[in-house]
């Protein structure tokens, strides 16, 4: 059900399975079975989480919509979460698809999140994935603003695992993280698809992967991701133990590659002299082994000659 304002309701009531006034500050929750809600107010909080409702909002039976400038957040819990549909308004929104923090063996739902105007921050699952929590396989579309999209979370710790997400930046100059802003310890990234859109975008197939705090300690690992920058001057970023990634539309002269490794425990931005190049069919493959990670980056359809200027160090 797409929520709509009831023609006979007050200015802050919306149609769903029930209608109740929505005050200036609200919390909204979509239920475990993929329910959705809609409210209107100056500031709202929504979490696609197990049936908790407060602040005068009502429950509907499908997608969750927001109006104006909202903050959509969840709460920490254990267990498997639902598959939710979340659509924001035109303000600058913050969305957590499932919760603020997922711990234990919690699993995020397979959520669909779409933002409209505004500069939005979206976490497909939660701000934090801890323990053995696992992110869902989410679809996130950024809309028209300068958006910050993270397929799973802001931070992944311990044995957390990212889902296989699809992120589309839309308009604006967007930053897309296939998994998380940062991965630590034994965290593992998923196999994601990132599409920048029409602006000058920054695409990370996985996220920041700093070296272990103790020499020889556990290190995170990235997934095998597919990245498309779209129109604009885009930057593709790879750090640490990234996987076997593919860039589908590398445009020499417009786009740039930023590759970071940790030989000796310190971040080093690699240049053309630090990678090996191979031509496979109509594609160019970069083999990166500066710190023993054996990652590869395939520039699909690119048969030109890479220059030092293609690498951002």
Automatic annotation (TrEMBL):
GO CC terms: extracellular region
InterPro entries named among the record's database cross-references: Hemolysn_Ca-bd, RTX_toxin/Mannuronan_C5-epim, Serralysin-like_metalloprot_C
Stored SUPFAM superfamilies: beta-Roll (SSF51120)
Protein's cellular compartments: Secreted
Transmembrane segments: none
Superkingdom assignment: Bacteria
Signal peptide start and end residues: none
Predominant subcellular localization, coarse grouping: secreted
Record keywords, A-Z: Secreted
Molecular function via GO: calcium ion binding
Record carries keyword Nucleotide-binding: no
Entry keyword annotation includes Translocase: no
Region (Disordered): 1-36
Pfam family, one: HemolysinCabind
Coiled coil segments of this chain: none
Name of the molecule in the record: Calcium-binding protein
Organism: Roseicella aerolata
